[in-house]
Amino acid sequence: MQFPESWLREFCNPPLSTEVLAKTLTMAGMEVESLTAVAPPFSGVVVGSVVAVEQHPNADKLRVCTVDVGQAAPLQIVCGASNARVGIKVPCALVGAALPPGDDGVPFAIKVGKLRGVDSFGMLCSARELKLSDDHAGLLELAPDAPIGQDIRVHLNLDDAIFTLKLTPNLSHCLSVFGIAREVSALTGAPLCEPRLASASVGTQRQLAVKVSAADLCGRFSGRVIENVNPKASTPAWMVERLARCGQRSVTPLVDISNYVMFELGRPSHIFDLDKIQGGLDVRWGRVGESLKLLNGATISLDDKVGVIADDVAVESLAGIMGGDATAVSDSTRHVYVEAAFWWPQAVAGRSRRFNFSTDAGHRFERGVDAATTVAHLERITQLVLDICGGQAGPIGDVQSSMPAPRSVSMRVTRAQRVLGMPLTVDQCADALRKLSLPLTVEGDTLTVAVPSYRFDLAIEEDLIEEVVRMIGFDQLPTSPPQAPITPRWRKEAQRGPFQVRHQLADLGYQETINYSFVDEKWEADLAGNASPIKLLNPIASHMGVMRSSLLAGLVNVLKFNLDRRLQRVRLFEVGRVFARDDSVPDSDRTVKGFSQPMRVAGLAYGGASDKQWGVADTAVDFYDAKGDVERLFGTGRPTFVVGEHPAMHPGRCAQVVLKGLPVGFVGELHPKWRQSYDLPKAPVLFELSLDAVLHQAVPRFEPVSKYPTVQRDVALMVGATVSYADLMEAVWSADTQGLLIDAVLFDIYLINTGDGERADRSFALRLLFNHREATLTDAAVDGAVQSVLARLSSSLGVRLR
Known about the structure:
By secondary structure, the chain is an alpha+beta fold.
């Protein structure tokens, strides 16, 4: 909500400076997002009247102007503006004036000058030279009645300030200058000047038939005919100025009047060209197959979820949001129909977003606009139309189909004390509510408020408590220490925190990315294999319609973004929550029944295995690099890797990560079809793991270094083609070596070519290390342990000594 301070002070003028007023509004819940001056500082500029203009004797594009600035004698000023002519009034900078600084920040001083041999005693100014706008096409022309010699800052009210409020959705009654003035009056005690809304005299009996067919769409529809208006009249300068300072440009006088009343009183309205309406008006829900060309030029398709105003032939307006192009006023308009309606907020909310645009009218109606003032505000619009455009007003038609029922809300003072944590009395609370002009009754400890029709935000007891503390002042809330002792929650030694995981991945060269939890439904089907994702009822964008069940799609999308910007080596990770359907999840304060929301950690590696340098060969990252990073993440957890399948990963280069017999994630190369779909030059390697599994680590235990020598034995084994490395090592460690085996390392693989075309056996070279902590090992003990390992390999996997 943007408005000039001067307009606000016409309704309520408290004895506060601009800065204090801004702080008062902010502390009352109406945050002042910005406070800017209408014009930068400058001085010495007055209203001047051009009384004579002659061609410069030595320059074709210059003119010598004689300017009356209210002094004893007129000034001679050389000017190059194309619109310099006799009779206009313009800003004139006198000798000694200081104009707004330029890009260098230094104010521009006006001195006596000589241009092509002609003396110039001042400067005629454009709007751009005064930093009032970017318009520099010519001199800034002032109103014909501007007082000659008056300071331009006074004449144009350039010492005004522009307030921009960041209002929360519940403050619909503050979406107007008068609504904010009403709050200022309550906060400061300054008198409130109510707007004069006199009834216009009826000059014609012409009326338009109106029918409200949808009471759940429109609760009240008021309107009147105004004949013989002049649409070509000029919008008054004061109205153009106020609209501009509210961020609204001037269009035509009829449109400007409608916008002006919306900013002044918070009442959006619409003015139809009466001669373009065919028959009467019907306020109803739209129908499938209907369409409407809006004032913004867009043509939209309608259905039964959108409210419309239609005549006997076609739809003419999108209810509460925007008018139609067919009945828009123009320079040829003679008769108009002005409407002011109450639209139910729930019937307007969200409709603009369906068509990818928003309007000031829709913004107000979906939050709530007073239903009791449609006729009074219609009189205000009529008054301005008659004053500016002329015409004769007809009688007001007022259809009340479903007015909001009167409401009352009660508040207990003892409850307010508990909520606010401060002592309060009944008189304090009653006084605060009366300042807001809220009618109330007091019965003992309970205050009951008859909610005014413009306060849509007052519905429960806590709303009244909020109003009380706003009036008393949030800065009056006491600061008291907690009564309960505060003790830190110590994390178990075997559990790390998510930040430690983030730091570990960063140490491995990965960079963190944070993606939306809302993703494209196609991503879920392709990269997560999720045919039934959780859909959003009101997505913020068409490509963010479902909740993610995997972090991988977001990482691939970020990779594509970086590759498009010519980055050659990418390491990414994300720690975040995913969402999936799970009937086993119960309903509790931390979970929603039927939906699981586990935390995951995922990573992606693309490009070279290391940064390019002269001492390391340039090799591409592969499956084993990512597998090694996963093993480092688990630390002492020692996960195992088994052949797995994942919809996002290469079917032959994907492994499932298993920890203590439970699957906890996947690691693998991106599937070739998704690599082709994303147009990736190389295949990235990805992993996704359960964060809980990564966080829980076995606590390292200290063991003293053995004083006795370690014995090494190398064995060459014939291993079948179907035996995996994981199976082999599991068999080695499960052998009964009496605790002597301390390490086993595979250091060589030799493929034996049988020549028959079948998959050959392999020769694995294993290095076994043995040690005893209390004695030196004998050959017999070591040989027995080796034989135990060989026997275990033979019995479980069919492995034999080569």
